[in-house]
Design goal:
Elements: H1 2-19, H2 35-42, E1 48-53, E2 63-71, H3 78-81, E3 85-91, E4 102-103, E5 111-117, E6 125-132, E7 138-145, E8 155-158, E9 163-166, E10 175-181, E11 193-195, E12 202-204, E13 213-220, E14 227-228, E15 232-234, E16 245-249, E17 252-256, E18 266-271, E19 279-280, E20 289-292, E21 302-307, E22 315-316, H4 328-331, E23 332-337, E24 341-348, E25 351-357, E26 366-371, E27 379-385, E28 392-396, E29 399-403, E30 409-413, E31 421-426, E32 434-438, E33 441-445, E34 451-455, E35 463-468, E36 474-480, E37 483-488, E38 493-497, E39 505-510, E40 516-522, E41 525-530, E42 534-539, E43 547-553, E44 560-564, E45 567-571, E46 577-581, E47 589-594, E48 600-606, E49 609-614, E50 618-623, E51 631-636, E52 644-648, E53 651-655, E54 661-665, E55 673-678, E56 686-690, E57 693-697, E58 703-707, E59 715-720, E60 726-732, E61 735-740, E62 744-749, E63 757-762, E64 770-774, E65 777-781, E66 787-791, E67 799-804, E68 812-816, E69 819-823, E70 829-833, E71 841-846, E72 854-858, E73 861-865, E74 871-875, E75 883-888, E76 896-900, ...
Antiparallel strand pairs: 1-2, 2-5, 3-4, 3-6, 6-7, 8-9, 9-12, 10-11, 10-13, 13-14, 13-15, 16-17, 17-20, 18-19, 18-21, 21-22, 23-50, 24-25, 25-26, 26-27, 28-29, 29-30, 30-31, 32-33, 33-34, 34-35, 36-37, 37-38, 38-39, 40-41, 41-42, 42-43, 44-45, 45-46, 46-47, 48-49, 49-50, 51-78, 52-53, 53-54, ...
Amino acid sequence: MKFFKKNISLLAVIAAALLAGISLLVVYCTLPIDEKMLLRIKDKTAPTIEITSPVDGSSYAATVVIEGKVSDFSTSGGSEGGVKRLYYTINPPIIEGTDTGVDITVKDDGTFSFNFPASGFSGMIIVTVYAEDWNGNVINTKVTLLDEGAIPSFKAEAGNGQVTLSWDPVPMTESYTIYYETSNIIPSEQFSKKIENATSPYMLKGLKNGELHTFILKANSSSGDDNWSNVAKALPLSPAHLAPILTPQYGSILVQWNSVAGADQYEVWKSNSRDGTFVNISGTTTSSQFIDSAVERGINSFYAVKPAKYNNNLSFSNSMQIDPFPSPTQAIVAHFDSVSAMSSVVFHDSYAYIASQNPFGDDSSGLQIFDVSNPAAPVAIGFIDTPGKEVMVAISGIYAYLTAGNEGLRVIDISDPSHPIEVSHIDLPGSAFFIAIKNSYAYVTVGYDGLRIINISNPLHPIEVGHIDTLGYVNTLAIQDSYAYVTTSNSGLRITDISDPLNPIEVSHIDTPDHANLVVIKDSYAYVTASDSCLRIINISDPLNPIEVSYIDTLGYASVVAIRGSHAYVTGGYSGLRIIDISSPASPFESARIDIPGYSYVVVLNGLYAYVTTWSNTIWVVDISTPSLPQEIGYYDTSGSADGVTVEGSYAYVADGDDGLRIIDVSNPSSPTEVGNFDTPGSAKGVTVEGSYAYIADGDSGLRVIDISDPASPAETGSYSTHTNAYRLTANGSYVYEVDNYMGLKTIDISNPASPLGIGLSVTYGRANDIAVRGSYAYVADDTDGLLIIDISNPSSPTEVGSYDTPGRANGVTVEGSYAYVADGSSGLCIIDISNPSSPTEAGSYDTPGYANGVTVRSCYAYVADGSSGLRIINVSDPTKPVEIDSYDTPGYAYEVAVRGSYAYVADGSSGLRIIDLLPND
């Protein structure tokens, strides 16, 4: 330390000389400053302190024990690493000396612990821990402790924009003071908002819904012996905030709701009538959806959702009945026969390649090729009879690779699908069964001879380069990243590292109760069919430690599984096609079942269809698209021209042109009823809802803010003049993003709904017609200028980063995943890949028959408001090949569409609001 001070003194002398104008020539410094000392001189960063126990807001006992850890970035522990001083204070100073600071001993690893008595004290204690490093940087952190027994009756009950606080009288108290914070912070006397001379019950109004409020009560005594309450928390919410949206499924009802910022856990409640007894059916959940599988067909169920931690009222849904979906009688659209029993089907371009074998031993085995460009009428165009009994086919480039049992691997040139030609083969030990191809290698299972690895970089000369023996008879495999996942007949799922194909190494395995048949990998899960009639789901996020997370009984011999999106399609035996919802891998459930004549074996998915093979030499084509046959079940003829619509909870909010905002109760979609309206001064073109407010794009009258906490009595609370034609808008947190036909994108701060404030502008050069916001970007449908992508990470300074000039006139836009879906006027639906926002590209398009004005996307379907052609429903599960699957011709002119649950709500111009049932009963 003396060494350090001596160097500092030398620097001070030099500095003083320079200030005095004395010229110094320093040629050599005999006492250089080492790196550690120089680091300390430059150190401007304070230490860090973490109090690990107790947590903020805890109650205290007779002895208070504080534990934590301190560290400083420029040091490394031990005698070099300790901070210069660590000490604490207590407010009020119940222990002598704790007002100025009491030193704390720090261990070598930076942890510390100290205690003090508090048996003779009641009320709030604030303990502050300070740390000072060797360069004078100081930091502190606090923990607030409470005497929970002083006013145990204090509680907070939330309502719509308000909280009611109540407590029992405290003896010897002259008055009560409420302290509160609009956050999770413990209130304090010094810094928090306060309400003096409060009486119980006390109702605090005008609060922001969805924002957590934290309260504490002080009972003021004339003797100065004040009492403090426990902490009470409340989350104000409107009735519509957590009103669940219901979707019927096969054997279940999907309950969904919009999460709120102030809640991290929820409860789902259920009753058979709105006025009946509601029962918690979910426990607590951090999700924003719940699947109720305890339902009966034709029985009405009512649902409600509330935050789990707070004393809130329930937010109710409309009732829902369960119906089968999809309809099994409508699912099978075609079937066709093959020359022999089919073991494997692969789709490539517009062709189906089928490895077929005859179980009775004749020679009609080989590769069949069908043209399936029309799924309802497949045409056989090619066949090659190969040695052996073909089991599996895989396609790579212009070659098909067939496993042929004892005849090894056969390589077929399919450059002309109508004339396939065998060009090579390779003999393998054992019986070649299953094949997967990755890069230039084919991985083939060969029964008791394990997994064989074949180099096919030259298809005319395949060469085996590696193999690995596994326990038991090897069935199938799947490859993901650098691992092969292999199923076996008696030793479950085996996982092999194939990063070096010449030297494969088994790294782990997991047993299954019965023979493991087929494995498919999706994301971090392996889906394994087993002979015990089960689909088993295994977490493989760590391939070295696979863990089974769930299984589901498929009620038949589970043979083959195929996966698309959130559904698994399982076949096996006489149980037909089972459709399993795997959106939550830990809780799979059957969502549909299709009866298949005969013994089903293989299922393969292609486009909107599942192809199921049977041992009776027949392929059944099953339509797995949804929804089907939409029907209008209700409408409300608004007085103006319905130009925009959004749905929240049980209400549809309609921007009704010159007649302003209309609020329609759609809890019974077949009989919608207007419950409230507000005639805005301009012409309402767009509407969005955030919390208890509806925000209206009101043409020349700009932005109007309508309080809808009471839907029967909407009232304007604020407005903002946009100076030009406000057309469409969307709310995102504390901001509304509004597009103005002639000025572009405007950012409006709505943190105070009574006084919205414009803070940002991005001028566009087309006619800005619609907007969608996802993450840090706004997507603007800019008429003749197509799609614009604007960075809004700084809301006050929006900046255009990319664009795509669509072929039509961009009228509407929505964003789902990595794609923007644009309602492009006379050009229909245009799908833009926005994975790179600075360089968007067109992925696909569909030319609707009308004039596409608005679009929304749910699951894998795009719903297009198509002007005089009504509602068009387009399957976009493959964004590069969108296909229209249904439509409904509304009587008016469809401007915009919203979808909630199983209903589409169409703003249909002069024909008002039309409600379309997307899942009608047959």
